[in-house]
Every structure is written in structure tokens, then in C-alpha cells.
Amino acid sequence: MTSTGTEASAAGWDEARLSEQFDATIAKDQRIEPRDWMPDGYRRTLIRQIAQHAHSEIIGMQPEGDWITRAPSLRRKAILFAKVQDEAGHGLYLYSAAETLGADRAELTDALIEGRQKYSSIFNYPTPTFADVGVIGWFVDGAAICNQVPLCRCSYGPYARAMVRVCKEESFHQRQGYELLLTMMRGTDGQRAMVQDAVDRWWWPSLMMFGPPDDDSPNSARSMAWKIKRHSNDELRQRFVDMTVPQAEKLGVTLPDPELSWNEERGHHDFGTPDWSELQRVISGDGPRNVERVSRRRAAHEEGAWVREAATAHAAKQAARTQETARTQKTEGAAA
Ligand SMILES: [Fe+2]
Ligand SMILES: [Fe+2]
Predict the structure, then answer these.
(1) Cα separation of 256 and 148, whole Å?
(2) Residue 151 Cα to ligand 1 middle (Å)
(3) Where in the sequence does UniProt note compositional bias of the Low complexity kind (predicted)?
């Protein structure tokens, strides 16, 4: 594990010099790696952000996972299965990235199921129809791409590298969602109505995924100075809106915002204000599915205890066997 700032000074290192080196690395747009000295605040911020990101990937398996058994065809079932499995993979990369900062994966899981750490507010909304699967791919994975592409240039190496692969998969997820919706829009009136209804329910919560408005986002400036974050919440939200409007037109759905219009002067779309009190409510645990999501994660963790015990016992047995083989070879070598 890399030394923290406090340990560094205890070891008599020149903390001012290390700090200068850190700042210079950031200024040159180079990467901070696990072995490098870093300020405690930088480490804490990253652990919090990466853990929250990992939790979101894992909790995010639930709303869509609910549809795996009910997908309307074998093809859709296989696609959805692969997509949900990708999200599990993203969670695992990210927990590993957090471990390079000295975090303990078991502690992070405890923090999630005990409600001490958060995950993206978006996964607290229900998925009553199959069109929700398409709209999640289109909006939620689309918003994830807007958020995560700049993270490929994040100053912390392991996080940035994990994002490169994650983003490739997210882009596939988005296209599968959009393709699903295109198919439904070519179907019956009932299917088209189902798509529009899902769009109406997911649009505003998707805009909230970028976090509160910039004026109300106290930690953003520091994260930007450390080059963890590259764009503000409002910039990313704007990027998402600009990207999604033409896609909605092509699909033939209406985004549920009467204030949405192209602003020639700004070269961007103007749009209405999300209900920030709803975001506050959902983040603080009072969304439509918060209790269910966390309790299901807790149950999965408890039901998986025997797997963890078996894996630990197996690893111990393997280690003992390797040790035994090494000892026998040594004895035989000495006898020969
Ligand atoms: Fe993901
Ligand atoms: Fe995804």
C-alpha cells in the first residue's frame, strides 16, 4: 500500500517536495499511480467516487435484471443477460481500482448495504415494462458515457484505464437500448405508447444523473483542480441533452420538456429545470425503490457467504499444498 501523507512525514520524508511533485504530475497531465505519494484528500475523494461508481454498476444490475426471465425472445434474453453481466464486470474493475488506493472491498460492500455509501440515484426507479430496458440503455448508459468518457483522462491511472474498457462496453449498451426501441417503434400502437411512457418516466431522472447544478456542487472545483473531474455537472448535462435530442427525433418520441428548444446563439439546446427536490429525496433514501435495491443486495451478500468461505478455504488449501511441495522438494534436494 502506498504511504499516506501522514505516514510520509512520520517517515521523515520531505512532504513539501512530494506535494510539489504531485502537483507537477497533475499539471503535466501525467498519471498518478498507486505507488506514488498523493494528498490524503485526493485519496479519500477517489475512494469515495470509485466506490460509489462501483456500487452503481452493481445495484444497476437489478432494474434491468428483473427483465431477464421475462424478455420477449431468446435473442433479447441473451442480449440482456450479456449486458447485465457487463455491469457486474464494471463493478468488479472499479472495486479493484479502489483497492489500489488501500480500500478494502469487504468494507466497501458493508458501507453500501449499511447505507453509509451511495450509488447513482437513477437505479432507484422501477422498470414496469420491457420498454424500460430500451430506455435505460439509451438514456442511462448514454448519460454514463457522457460522464465516463472524460474519466478516461482522469489523473488517477487505474481509474482512467478501467474507464477505457468500461466506456467501450457502455457504448455497446447504449446502442442495444436504442436498437430495441427502434424495433418497438416499428411495432404496434401499444408498443409505441409503451416506449413514449418509458421516455416520459426516465427523462428527468436521467438529467439528474449528472448531479446537482454547478452552483450547488461544492466538491466539484477541487475534483477539477485535481483533474479527477474534467467537466462540470452542467456541462455534461448539456452534452447529454444535445446528443439525445436528435436521437429522439429519429426515434419518433417526444422528450417531456416543453422548454426544450434549439438556441442558435449558444449553439446548444435550452431545456427546463429538473425537480432538484426529487433528486435530494431519492439520494437521501426516499426514492421509489431504494429500500428494495439495498435489501436485495444485502440478501445476495448474505446468501453468498458460503461461496466466500469456500473460496477462502480453497485458497488456504492451495497455499498449504504449494508450501508442502516446496518443502518436500527441498528435503529431497538435500538428500540427493
Ligand atoms: Fe456499466
Ligand atoms: Fe452499461
Answers:
(1) 25
(2) 13
(3) 310-323
In the reported structure, the alpha carbon of residue 189 is separated from the centroid of ligand 1 by a whole-number distance in angstroms of 32
**All cell numbers assigned to 220:** 466539484
Count other Cβ atoms within 10 Å, centred on residue 60: 24
Q: How far, in Å, are 28, 140, 190, 271, 272 from residue 248 at the CA level?
A: 40, 14, 18, 14, 17
* Predicted confidence (pLDDT) per residue in 113-144, tens digit: 999 999 999 999 999 999 999 999 999 999 99
Phi/psi of residue 266, each to 5°?
Answer: -80, -20
Query: What's the 199 CA to ligand 2 centre distance in angstroms?
Result: 18
What is the CA(134)–ligand 2 centre distance, in A?
12
What's the pLDDT tens digit per position in 180-239? 999 999 999 999 999 999 999 999 999 999 999 998 887 788 899 999 999 999 999 999
- Joined grid coordinates for residue 171: 457504448
Distance 169 CA to ligand 2 centre (A): 7
Q: How far is CA 253 from the centre of its chain?
A: 27
CA of 140 to the centre of ligand 1 (A): 10
Q: Is 264 helix (H, G, I), strand (E, B) or coil?
A: coil
Cα of 55 from ligand 2 centre, angstroms: 13
Distances (CA, A) of 197 to 18, 38, 165, 253, 272: 55, 48, 32, 10, 19
Ligand 2 centre distance from Cα of residue 296 (Å): 20
For residues 125 and 306, is the Cβ–Cβ distance under 8 A?
no
Question: Ligand 2 centroid vs 314 CA: distance in angstroms?
Answer: 33
Q: Which ligand is nearest to the CA of 172?
A: 2
